[in-house]
Amino acid sequence: MSRFGAWPCLISIGRIAQCLLRLGHTQGQRLNGKLVITDRPSFQELSHMIGCSRETVSRAMKVLQEDGYLIVTRKDITITRPWHNPK
Fold first, then answer.
1. Is the Cβ–Cβ distance between 19 and 46 less than 8 Å?
2. What one-character-per-residue DSSP string does the chain give?
3. What pTM did the predictor assign?
4. Which of 4, 5, 34, 79 could make an SS bond with 10 (beta carbons 3.0 to 4.6 A apart)?
5. Is 10 exposed, middle or buried (0-12, 13-18, 19+ CB in 10 A)?
6. What does R_g of the chain's alpha carbons equal in angstroms?
7. 48 vs 79: CA distance, rounded Å
């Protein structure tokens, strides 16, 4: 089995990434080539935004952090590798 587990988790990672990029571009700031979302939504809020469980968001965010795409703190989410610009 792959690191992502199964297709639902992989799809959720993509949906979370899109949601975070959208938030970063609409509410975030660019700092040194990174996007910083300073008014960090909770995992529960993110789950409502993309239509999945909080547990799925938690697992997907962990993968994105371990792979170096995100830094999550109590106050903000930093997208360290903003991999594309949403339209």
1. yes
2. --TT-SHHHHHHHHHHHHHHHHHHHHH-EEETTEEEESSPPPHHHHHHHHTS-HHHHHHHHHHHHHTTSEEE-SS-EEESS------
3. 0.79
4. 4
5. middle
6. 12
7. 20
Structural domain boundaries of the chain? 7-79
CB of 56 within 8 A of CB of 13? no
Tell me the fold of 7-79: Arc Repressor Mutant, subunit A (1.10.10)
**pLDDT tens digits for the chain (87 residues)?**
455 555 566 678 889 999 999 999 999 999 988 999 998 999 999 999 999 999 999 999 999 999 999 999 999 999 998 665 444
Q: What is the pLDDT of residue 86?
A: 46
pLDDT of residue 87: 44
